[in-house]
Amino acid sequence: MHIKIVRKDFLSVPCELLVVYLFQGVTKLHGAPSAVDKVLGDAISKLIKQDAFEGTLGQVLVFPTFGMIKAKRVAVIGLGDKRRFNADAIRRVGGCIVKLASQHKVSSVVTILYGDEVGRIDHRTSVQALTEGVILSAYRFHSYHGTLRKKETPPTELKLFTICETSARAMKIAEDGIMRGRALATATCFARDLVNTPSADMMPTQLVEEAKKLTGRGITVKVMDRKEMKLRGMHATLAVARGSDCPPFGVHLVYKPRGVVSRRAQGGIKKKVVIVGKAVTFDSGGLNIKHGDSMSTMKIDMAGAATVLGLFKALAEIPLNIEVHGIFLAVENMPSGSAYRPGDVVKAMDGTTIEILNTDAEGRVTLVDAIAYAKTLKPDIIIDLATLTGACIVALGDDIAGLLTNDHKLGQRLLDAAKDAGEPLWELPLYEPYMELIKSKIADIKNVGSRSSGVITAALFLKPFVGDTPWAHIDIAGPSYVEHETRPDLPYGASGYGVRLLARFLQKL
Length: 509
Ligand code: BES
Ligand code: MG
Ligand code: ZN
What we know:
Blueprint: E1 2-6, E2 15-22, H1 31-39, H2 43-49, E3 60-64, E4 71-78, H3 87-103, E5 108-112, H4 123-138, H5 147-150, E6 160-164, H6 168-196, H7 204-212, E7 219-224, H8 226-231, H9 235-241, E8 249-255, E9 272-283, H10 292-295, H11 303-317, E10 323-333, E11 345-347, E12 353-355, H12 363-375, E13 381-386, H13 390-396, E14 401-405, H14 408-421, E15 425-427, E16 445-446, H15 454-466, E17 471-475, E18 481-482, E19 493-494, H16 499-508
Parallel strand pairs: 1-6, 2-4, 2-5, 5-6, 9-10, 9-13, 12-16, 13-17, 14-15
Antiparallel strand pairs: 3-4, 7-8, 8-10, 11-12, 14-17, 18-19
Bound molecules: ligand BES, magnesium ion and zinc ion (ZN).
């Protein structure tokens, strides 16, 4: 889809659909809606008077124009309550536009720039959010549509999205907003593709290939094979990988601000942040095998790694003055004659011994090696993202990720970034006394606690490995996959959760 901004009066641009906006409860029209109202013989104000349009968020009115203006149709979209208007409302509006375009089989849409005059949202933020909303909503995963699906008429796709603005200054800012929105939404869609791809085609080997493709534009990619992982002492991860026919790989991506490689030493680069992602390309549960239903979506168990890769894709487009490391240890959790067993004791990279009581609690077993490796880089911050526990879904539902952290300030920054990005995140306590639940009688620690405290004990399992480094754990088991659609910018399948949240967090650091 082509998204562009032009310096023109919106009424003068020919298109199939012109979109203008109205806040809830507005009865006297101003600006663009008023101009459209006039040329359409007061159609909008008449409908408002008849209480046919209130302007609730996402409410839509569509008129044919019968050639009275250059646009074939006009849509008025409700922006909801002015006091609650934010970037996320704009993303939803972007979703409405895509939906409208498909309903009316429209391929070109023209709209106006808004921001500044409508509360605290500036032009850049508003255009960025609109761009994100439109691209994220237009996403569909169709790589696996075969001959049967190809015979269906394809949904009409929005091809050209034009934003009109007459001020040169606002235009320049908006152009930057489009660039950022496009980079972030495209990176999110990239992460979605990786997760949506069936596990048979997204084994550790393929995930590594995807990582390698990101090399360049400030990014380097280092790959560790089984031999190197063994040399480094990542025995916990290697134990999880043993049941699979596909060999494990470790991936270490580094983003360094371009042209300022040694700036950290001079105080130029503020921070070194490591992002760790869970990368279980398929989680069968291992010998503690999952039952059919709960196994059917387990291709998503590498969503943490997909978010890391999505973030790096975005970093290539939107430069940052921060050194960012991305780490994931890619494995497949399978049952077989060589699989790790309940009762086995495995040793993590830092020497900690782990009693395996359930081979399905494999994520934490691989993450601790990744975190121990991250520690060797002496980072200022470690953040891990993992589809770690079903218990997190029970606690927070399908849409909200769980945040557990040893650093209040870091937690608050992540919550703020999540709010800005429109990716719901909620903090849960790292309640120390539950540490008792994962003490082992025969090793240092065991890999399962009690059923009822599942999210917290999983996070507490990771905690000793980070030491005193500020650290946040984000459990994305719920929001990484959409099974029941609730909003247009989150279509069925992988969501790419976290790419925009992390990009926002790093940008504001
Ligand atoms: N990958 C799963 C967690 C998961 C569940 C992710 C549902 C996405 C959707 C994880 O490896 C797992 O199996 N966790 C177990 C832990 C238990 C055995 C302590 C769980 O949550 O049941
Ligand atoms: Mg599991
Ligand atoms: Zn898992």
